[in-house]
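input
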Amino acid sequence: MAEITPRTVLVTGGNRGIGFAIAQEFVAAGHRVAVTARSGEGPEGALTVRADVTDAAAIDAAFTEVEAALGPIEVVVANAGITRDTLMLRMSEDDFDAVVDTNLGGSFRVAKRALKGMLKAKHGRIVFISSVVGLYGNPGQVNYSASKSGLVGMARSITRELGSRGITANVVAPGFIETDMTAELPEEQQAAMKKQIPAGRYGSAAEVAKAVAWLASDDAAYISGAVIPVDGGLGMGH
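output
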């Protein structure tokens, strides 16, 4: 492993779940870390700034605040997202638009704002947090699956546009991860879900975080446009 270069890192939606774990991992590695959140706080050692990823002006203000406190942002993890699950025939246009605007549109706004500083520095790491269902599909999640699938095209287009500028853009696609939400599922449903996973267990948010931190490191400088699954083998072949 190469020696870690301290970077200024911004994680969107870093106040809970996978985003919190990602921010925690970067803090533990000695990076300067900030998180965006609409409510709540990021992990100890991280700067929390208020921002809604559906609002470009709020994103710009958050970046400006982080840059003033921690310096130019070198690593961005676009993690903020929402779900509004229901079968397609029952899904309203608002259910579809809200999820796509937050998950896909929010990632676009964050990446676009980040690229200004990255182009100037001729260095940058963008990591989009997708999902196994982005390529695997899932009943009741047409909106969510579409938004997460779109992140793959976004990362690969950024790679083709800016790969020669020292900027990488990659996707991490978690599978079933241990969260408060999965813990509340009935035992029978949890057992049925685990049967689909070759590893035979849920993943942890920390395991996702370690994959993200590696993609953002100097060791991964020649990796761009990749989709890294952290799903226990659930989505292989997709």
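quick obs: Helices lie at 17-28, 56-70, 93-121, 133-136, 142-162, 180-183, 187-195, 205-215.
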